[in-house]
Structure formats: structure tokens, C-alpha cells
């Protein structure tokens, strides 16, 4: 494989040759039609050649060093059985600029190549794709109550559900409770057809989707039937004490201050609570000023055992275009 060189930025020129011991994995490393290597060339300004199990990198010393780290990272992920897609390539390139994350992921890994920060579920192993996700995973492991704040596509709810599933599987908690306010822009439950469950389920669908991505379908259904997993709107939490449970509130920006206070005070012994939301995407009347999430963050910032994890558009890990969309909308609202 050889393509026209990509002009490098100013700086000392460097050339490095990488040798990979499992050539059969390089097809996945390169991507379809070498799209992963093309992305590296375009994003980092390096020139890449490939021959057999060798990859040559040429560019400035800084560019080459970043490209080398990204290729090693992606190769290690493939060896661990992870899928490498365009989003992961973009995330790995972004992480190459974060020396703190490099230390978090690879330091003290025991020589086995597996990062110490990861969430294992029955269907997949989840590792951080951005520095903010790495921080978030640490906080999920160490704090009792975590607020995850930021735009759509940053993995706030997905990572929380994965951590909850892991703790349910290993017996750290006895129940997994997923909740969100049944609020959508321009719609009211009373106008939807069906009984209460049929009215509410569409609003809870994203939580079900995350569950099915972390557990086999038959286990999700069996655990829901037994009460180990509960997915319900926030109104169903009133009057309860949620002990021995991992509790997640999604779309928390659409709660009122009274609802948020009610939910937070459900916290029980041996429980963990994660509150996820985008403070800028409020669908309830009154907007941000009426949001229970904004009110709770203001009141609880700095309180012991309560962590605030903030994500930005740079942490979006869905299709790259999602990040561009979020950035365009946030820029127009500024």
C-alpha cells in the first residue's frame, strides 16, 4: 500500500517503521479500503506506507509519535477482541494528545497490555475512548453519587449502564434501577394510545437498548421478570428507599427541582446513583431555569462523595458527524 504523501507541518522530519507480529490482524487495523490509515494521514499530517507486517510513518517527530501511539493503541484493542470503527479511530487520535490519559490507561498494566480502566459485561468489554470517559469510569468505581453532564453521544448513560450491569453480575448490588422522566418536546403521555406501560416504554427505550447491548436478551428479560432489573419513569420512585441498588437517572435535565430532590433522597444503603443529563437540552416548560438538574448541580457541587463529571463536544463517541452537529448547534446558541 502506498499513497501520495501528505504534506507535513513545520518541524524536524522523522521516519519510523513499526513491526506487527500478527499480520492477520492488520486488515482490521487498516480498515476497509485502508480507511483507518487514510484518517490518520488526514488528521495527523503523516505519510503512511505498508508492506507485509511493517508500517512506515513519515512526518514531523511529533506527528509520527502520535501516529505510532494511535496504531499501537488500535492494534492492542484488536488483540483484545474489540471492534475498531471510525469513531474509535477518531477517539484514539484525540487521546494521543492527552498524556494524562496515556498514563491512566497504560501505567501499571502488569505487562499484559490490558488497561486497568475497563468495564467487563457478558457481551463486551468497554474501555474509555476519551480522557473524560476515563475520569468518568474512575468516578463510577469510587464515588456513591455521580452527575454526568454533557451533550448527546458522549457515553454518559451507556457507560453507567455497563458499570451497573457489571456490579449486578458480580453481586456488588442486588438490583439495577433505570429511570428517566417521561417528557418529550411537544408530546404528552395522555395523548398516546395504550395502557400506562405502553405509554411509558417508548420514553425508556434508550435504557433498554443499552441493557441489551451489555447482556444477552434472555438474561435481560429474565432479570426484569425477577425484579433484579427495573426500568421505570421517575414518578414510580416516589416513596421508595433504593437500597443495595445501582440507580441511574437518564435525561435528568427534564426533571423539576422537586422531582430531583425526591429522586436523590431515595438513596439507600450500599447503593450507587448516577444522574445523567445535558444541561443545555431542557424540554420542560421554563427551560434551564426550571431544570432540577441545574438546581442540583448548583447545590451539590463540592459535596463529599458526590462527583461531577463534565463532557464536551470533543467527547462525542458516536459517528463523527454527531460531534459536528452538536458543535454547530452549540456554536449557534452562543
What is the radius of gyration computed over CA atoms, rounded to a whole number of angstroms?
22 Å
- Measured between the Cα atoms of the first and last residue, the distance is 45 Å
- Portion in strands: 15-25%
Estimated structural class: alpha/beta
Count of separate DSSP helical elements: 12
E-strand count: 11
Order of helices and strands: EHHEEHHHEEHEHEHHEEHEHEH
Tags for this entry?
single chain, 334 residues, alpha/beta, six-stranded parallel beta sheet, three-stranded antiparallel beta sheet, 41% helix, 16% strand
Structural description of this entry:
Helices cover 41% and strands 16% of the residues. With 334 residues, it is α/β, with parallel strands linked by helices. Strand 2 (47-51) and strand 3 (54-60) form a beta hairpin. The strands form 3 sheets. Strands 8-7-9-10-6-11 form a 6-stranded parallel sheet, sandwiched between helices. The chain has helices spanning 26-30, 35-44, 61-79, 86-95, 99-106, 131-142, 156-169, 196-214, 217-226, 257-264, 292-300, 320-333; strands at 13-19, 47-51, 54-60, 119-120, 125-126, 145-149, 175-180, 229-233, 245-249, 272-277, 306-310. It contains 12 helices and 11 strands. The protein is elongated and about 65 Å long.
Amino acid at each position: 500500500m502506498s499513497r501520495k504523501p501528505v504534506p507535513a507541518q513545520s518541524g524536524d522530519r522523522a521516519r519510523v517503521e513499526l513491526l506487527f507480529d500478527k499480520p492477520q490482524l492488520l486488515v482490521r487495523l487498516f480498515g476497509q479500503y485502508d480507511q483507518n490509515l487514510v484518517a490518520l494521514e488526514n488528521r495527523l499530517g503523516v505519510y503512511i506506507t505498508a508492506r507485509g507486517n511493517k508500517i512506515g510513518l513519515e512526518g514531523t517527530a511529533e506527528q509520527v509519535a502520535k501516529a505510532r501511539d494511535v496504531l499501537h493503541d488500535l492494534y492492542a484493542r484488536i488483540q483484545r477482541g474489540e471492534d475498531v470503527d471510525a469513531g474509535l479511530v477518531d477517539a484514539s487520535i484525540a487521546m494521543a494528545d492527552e498524556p494524562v490519559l496515556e498514563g491512566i490507561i497504560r501505567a501499571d498494566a502488569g505487562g499484559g497490555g490490558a488497561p486497568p480502566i475497563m468495564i467487563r459485561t457478558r457481551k463486551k468489554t468497554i474501555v474509555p475512548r476519551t480522557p473524560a470517559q476515563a475520569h468518568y469510569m474512575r468516578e463510577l468505581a469510587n464515588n456513591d453519587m455521580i452527575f454526568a453532564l454533557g451533550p448527546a453521544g458522549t457515553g454518559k448513560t451507556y457507560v453507567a449502564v455497563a458499570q451497573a450491569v457489571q456490579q449486578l453480575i458480580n453481586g456488588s448490588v442486588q438490583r439495577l434501577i433505570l429511570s428517566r422522566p417521561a417528557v418529550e418536546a411537544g408530546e404528552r403521555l395522555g395523548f398516546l394510545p395504550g395502557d400506562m406501560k405502553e405509554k411509558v416504554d417508548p420514553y425508556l427505550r434508550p435504557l433498554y437498548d443499552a441493557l441489551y447491548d451489555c447482556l444477552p436478551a434472555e438474561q435481560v428479560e429474565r432479570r426484569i421478570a425477577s425484579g433484579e432489573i427495573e426500568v421505570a419513569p421517575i414518578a414510580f420512585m416516589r416513596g421508595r428507599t433504593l437500597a443495595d441498588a445501582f440507580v441511574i437517572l437518564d435525561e435528568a435535565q427534564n426533571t423539576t427541582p422537586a422531582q430531583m430532590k425526591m429522586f436523590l433522597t431515595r438513596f439507600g444503603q450500599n447503593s450507587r446513583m448516577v444522574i445523567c443529563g445535558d444541561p443545555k437540552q431542557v424540554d420542560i416548560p421554563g427551560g434551564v431555569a426550571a431544570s432540577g438538574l441545574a438546581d442540583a448541580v448548583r447545590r451539590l457541587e463540592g459535596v463529599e462523595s458526590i462527583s461531577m463529571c463534565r463532557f464536551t463536544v470533543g467527547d462525542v463517541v458516536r459517528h463523527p458527524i454527531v460531534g459536528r452537529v452538536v458543535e454547530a448547534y452549540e456554536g449557534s446558541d452562543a
